[in-house]
Design goal:
With 266 residues, the chain is of the alpha+beta class. It has 13 helices and 4 strands. It is rod-shaped, with a radius of gyration of 34 Å. The protein starts with a strand and ends with a helix.
């Protein structure tokens, strides 16, 4: 048994208290605890505590310190359960204490993967042009379950996805592209697929926002590619065969047969 002889608030942290006990005729420092643990355990001057009680107090204090650490981590932004668990593991917290803290955070509605996924999707929709497949991938990387992700993605409707893509396509109209209209559309389609949109969504958006090069710009691009192809094949082919090689090269670049024939005739 040990008798608490003195309790002092720490100078650098007024939410933690140093506990002193009587030992060998004098007051000696025994341990420190969080204010919440001090109140919960009813620690006070003159209280007798045995080794088992002290062990429980120290365990409760580790839980509280880990809880405070998690709260600090959550103060910057919402987190998934997996993110908080990973963070606490990196801080060398023991597994039973981590699980205790995660359960407590969940009970207090401070940690909720469904709410996190919905907020994540809402924020990304407002600040980025990412599609649902990309958002699904990012949430999965944060340890959110597929079922939870699918439930949260119902807030990102098909119609909203189309509108998002249309808005993005409108912004691309001012860009310069040295190539055919078809090649430009294909390039934009690949970018949208990489952003996480599905082909049906992309095609519907293209139907409402046609992407087409200015005729003069496309003609200049065709001539540049045509001259390059001429130089490439001129030493190997001639006449009709040379024209066919150039024609095939330009067709692969997405130029229309009408424009290609015009170029070759010129």
């Amino acid at each position: 048994m040990a008798i608490i002889t003195r309790i002092e608030v720490q100078k650098r942290n007024n939410e933690r208290y140093n506990i002193f006990i009587h030992q060998n005729g004098q007051d000696v420092y025994a341990f420190s605890v969080d204010e919440q643990v001090l109140i919960k355990q009813g620690l006070r001057k003159g209280l007798d505590i045995d080794a088992e009680q002290m062990k429980q107090i120290l365990y409760e204090d580790e839980v509280q310190k880990t809880f405070n650490l998690a709260l600090h981590y959550l103060s910057y932004r919402m987190r998934s359960v997996h993110e908080v668990r990973t963070y606490l593991k990196k801080k060398d917290r023991e597994e039973p204490i981590i699980e205790h803290v995660l359960h407590r955070l969940n009970e207090q509605r401070l940690l909720d993967d469904h709410a996190f996924a919905e907020a994540f999707i809402q924020t990304k929709r407002a600040t980025t042009s990412k599609g649902p497949l990309k958002l699904k991938q990012e949430l999965a990387e944060k340890g959110v379950s597929e079922k939870t992700i699918e439930g949260a993605l119902t807030t990102f409707s098909y119609e909203e996805q189309v509108e998002q893509v249309k808005a993005w396509l409108e912004k691309q109209k001012g860009r310069t592209f040295k190539g055919s209209s078809l090649a430009w559309k294909q390039k934009l389609s690949r970018q949208l697929l990489a952003k996480g949109y599905t082909s049906p969504v992309i095609e519907e958006a293209f139907a409402d926002v046609p992407i087409k090069q200015e005729e003069e710009e496309e003609w200049e691009a065709l001539k540049a590619f045509g001259e390059k192809a001429m130089r490439k094949y001129a030493g190997k082919k001639a006449g009709w065969e040379l024209q066919q090689k150039v024609k095939q090269a330009l067709y692969r670049k997405g130029f229309s047969l009408e424009m290609i024939e015009r170029y070759l005739n010129d």
